[in-house]
């Protein structure tokens, strides 16, 4: 049995779920609170981070380690493909969204609206949310620019870069903070991602105490 210990609040976990679904894998999910991990989880990953991939008594922890393992082990639907320069571009954009977008957008917006509210029990700080939204505009302009030139972020084919970006975007979109009307190319790109069978379960995710934006599950938003 393949078990993924995850949280639907974390884009890194959503990324691995979509990747596994693209590879037609059968797996079981175990939900954990990312800010209060159980002792059992801390024993198997002292770093205290999700996701954790468990199979045949083996444990892999960390988004990048799991990603590379799945790409190397499961040949179906490769998502880091092309020549060496093309693969490098997929990895560059994957890192962009896993880290830069996460640091400049997710940590500000979701950090205030989810973590501070439900974990720290404090009101969100509007200054930080505003900073995150300002940063979001830059990233959305970049997505818009990339998708004006090609079908997907790293080129003509769907890749790991699209999964990483959509995993981050999905949470910000859930919170209703993306002005899609300003980014027609990015909107068309995201509608294609939302329409993929691998993304179906992501759109079923719900954050306790927070209602999704009205168009969150709408494939023709």
Description:
α1 (11-22) runs parallel beside α3 (63-73), α1 (11-22) packs across α6 (160-174) and α5 (126-149) packs across α7. This protein folds into 2 domains: 2-73, Glutaredoxin; 84-204, Glutathione S-transferase Yfyf (Class Pi), Chain A, domain 2. Helix content is 54%, strand content 8%. The chain has helices at residues 11-22, 39-44, 63-73, 84-119, 126-149, 160-174, 184-194, 200-204; strands spanning 2-6, 28-31, 52-55, 58-61. A 4-stranded mixed β-sheet has the order 2-1-3-4, covered by helices on one side. The chain has 8 helices and 4 strands, in the order βαβαββαααααα. The mean pLDDT is 96. The protein is an alpha+beta fold and 221 residues long.
Short description:
The chain has 221 residues and is of the alpha+beta class. The protein has 8 helices and 4 strands. The protein has 2 domains: 2-73, Glutaredoxin, CATH 3.40.30.10; 84-204, Glutathione S-transferase Yfyf (Class Pi), Chain A, domain 2 (Up-down Bundle), CATH 1.20.1050.10.
User: What class, by secondary structure content?
Assistant: alpha+beta
The largest sheet, given as strand count, sense and whether it forms a barrel, is:
4 strands, mixed
Q: How many helices does DSSP assign?
A: 8
Mean pLDDT: 96
| Unreliable stretches covering 5 or more consecutive residues | none
Which band does the percent of strand residues land in? 5-15%
Spatial strand order of the main sheet: 2-1-3-4
Key traits:
Glutathione S-transferase Yfyf (Class Pi), Chain A, domain 2, 2 domains, alpha+beta, Glutaredoxin, globular, 221 residues, 4-stranded mixed sheet
């Amino acid at each position: 049995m393949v078990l993924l210990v995850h949280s639907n609040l974390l884009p890194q976990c959503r990324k691995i779920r979509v990747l596994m679904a693209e590879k037609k894998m059968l797996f079981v999910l175990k939900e954990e609170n990312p800010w209060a991990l159980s002792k059992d989880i801390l024993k198997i990953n002292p770093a205290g981070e999700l996701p954790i991939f468990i199979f045949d008594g083996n444990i892999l922890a960390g988004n990048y380690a799991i990603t590379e393992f799945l790409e190397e082990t499961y040949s179906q639907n490769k998502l880091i493909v092309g020549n060496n320069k093309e693969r490098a571009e997929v990895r560059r954009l994957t890192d962009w969204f896993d880290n830069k977008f996460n640091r400049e957008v997710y940590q500000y917006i979701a950090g205030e609206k989810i973590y501070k509210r439900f974990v720290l029990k404090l009101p969100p700080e509007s200054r930080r949310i505003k900073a995150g939204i300002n940063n979001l505009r830059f990233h959305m302009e970049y997505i818009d620019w990339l998708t004006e030139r090609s079908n997907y972020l790293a080129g003509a084919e769907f890749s790991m870069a699209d999964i990483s970006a959509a995993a981050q975007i999905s949470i910000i979109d859930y919170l209703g903070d993306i002005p899609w009307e300003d980014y027609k190319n990015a909107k068309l790109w995201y509608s294609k991602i939302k329409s993929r069978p691998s993304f179906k379960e992501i759109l079923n995710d719900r954050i306790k105490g927070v209602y999704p934006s009205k168009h969150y599950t709408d494939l023709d938003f």
